[in-house]
Design goal:
This protein is α/β, with parallel strands linked by helices. It has helices at residues 17-28, 51-65, 88-116, 128-131, 137-157, 175-178, 186-192, 201-211; strands at residues 8-12, 32-37, 44-45, 70-73, 119-124, 162-169, 223-226. Helix 1 (17-28) crosses helix 8, helix 2 (51-65) packs parallel to helix 3 and helix 3 (88-116) packs parallel to helix 5 (137-157).
Length: 233
């Protein structure tokens, strides 16, 4: 018996990295997982910054599976852009996916959840909102927005049996990170962690699976930091 037996879950950003690890973990716990990504290799191809595509993703999931119990919103762009190089177009590019995408997925997913009187929403934030990491000002702002929005939405949706939480990973060895200058930060970050090793995508998935389960029914509006103790306070 898995903790997500008979549950239907949408996981965005599921083609690689943390999203893929989460999709695999939820499936291992018994959930029917609809993986969504702008890249190929998932159940549905979706750009989370496009309202029509997000609305259709949720409608198709409910039509095919009869309900939607869980949303994990992991789709995000992780840039490496020094402050002097961030113009408004670059700011909007990050906000469109990371923050608009959070609004759109949460907005449409909560509708069938409300009708059912049950739901679990987990938005992936980042521990950069606690550290103010450089070369990421727009990303840090977007993820701070994800966390604050999560807290606000938890207030609005608790009365309908829906919890809304966020998980903040630390620097994680995903395909995206390893293909960017962020890969050079691992040695430094490991010195700051309580657990001195490189974070992997599978390290993040169990925290998400807990918040996506029935067991976490008394936990909402929270930020669960999964970063090896880098930002323990």
């Amino acid at each position: 018996m898995g903790k997500l037996d008979n549950r239907v879950a949408i996981v965005t950003g599921a083609a690689q990295g943390i999203g893929r690890a989460v999709a695999d973990k939820l499936a291992a716990e018994g959930a029917t997982v609809v993986g969504a990504d702008i890249q190929d290799g998932t159940t549905v191809k979706v750009d989370v910054s496009k309202e029509v595509e997000v609305e259709l993703m949720v409608a198709d999931t409910v039509a095919q599976h009869g309900k939607l119990d869980v949303l994990v919103n992991s789709a995000a762009i992780v840039p490496f852009t020094p402050w002097d190089d961030i113009d408004f177009a670059e700011w909007r590019r990050i906000m469109a996916v990371n923050l608009d995408g959070t609004f759109l997925t949460n907005h449409y997913a909560q509708k069938p959840m409300r009708e059912a009187g049950y739901g679990r929403i987990v938005n992936i934030a980042s521990n950069v909102i606690l550290a103010g990491t450089p070369n990421l000002a727009h990303y840090v702002a977007s993820k701070g927005g994800v966390y604050a929005f999560t807290r606000a939405l938890a207030r609005e949706l608790g009365q309908y049996g829906i919890t809304v939480n966020s998980v903040a990973p630390g620097l994680t060895a995903t395909e995206g990170v390893m293909a960017s200058p962020h890969q050079e930060a691992f040695e430094f970050v490991q010195m700051l962690q309580c657990i001195p090793r490189r974070g992997e995508a599978v390290d993040i998935a169990p925290a998400v699976a807990f918040l996506a389960s029935e067991e976490a029914g008394w936990v909402t509006g929270q930020l669960l930091v999964a970063d090896g103790g880098m930002s323990h306070n």
